[in-house]
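May I ask you for just one protein sequence along with its backbone structure tokens in two labelled lines?

_____
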Amino acid sequence: MPSRLLVLTDRAQLPAGRSLVEQVERCVDAGARWVCLRERDLPDDQRLALATSLTGLLRPVGGRLVVAAPLPAAAAWGAVADGVHLRRSDPVPPHASLVGRSTHGEAELRAAVEQGCDYVTLSPYAATASKPGHGPALGPAGLRRVIDAVPLGETKLLALGGISSGNAAEAMASGAHGVAVMGEVMRAGDPGRVIRALLPD
């Protein structure tokens, strides 16, 4: 299992003039080792090129790239993606080595665990600028309640949504294995500083 910090991409939130590859490179230089490539709106060839570039940043430092479903069937994806991140209704692919799934409550979390997902994101932990109105926010008490209700077994749970340096430790103290972050990093002029603040000691 990769580190306790998962960075999700969203090029729409980048600072003006900054490329996604450059933003992720700054994150990797600061210690990020696990990235989820989203960018589902891109044509397959452009998305594959982005995945190839990000893998080129991550693998030399022992990092891993997961790609948000749907993945094309092209064999080239197997060479650049270490795993797949599924939406709530995506089927589990038969041969993926690392499988994650987005969940938003107890029922979805339980289903993902029963499917044998390696990790899940549970959201929203807090109010989030990336998806305003998405909620209600779990907060530490809500997160603890869901975790207590669903035996996770080997599945690692990452808190997602409104995660920042101010609440990441709180989320992990409330039972999350780690945190997943998008907007706080993607919008940052200095994403390396944000990564260093988010990484667990």
In short: The chain has a mean pLDDT of 92. The domain at 5-198 is CATH 3.20.20.70 (TIM Barrel). The helical segments are 20-29, 44-58, 76-80, 106-114, 139-149, 168-173, 183-186, 191-198.
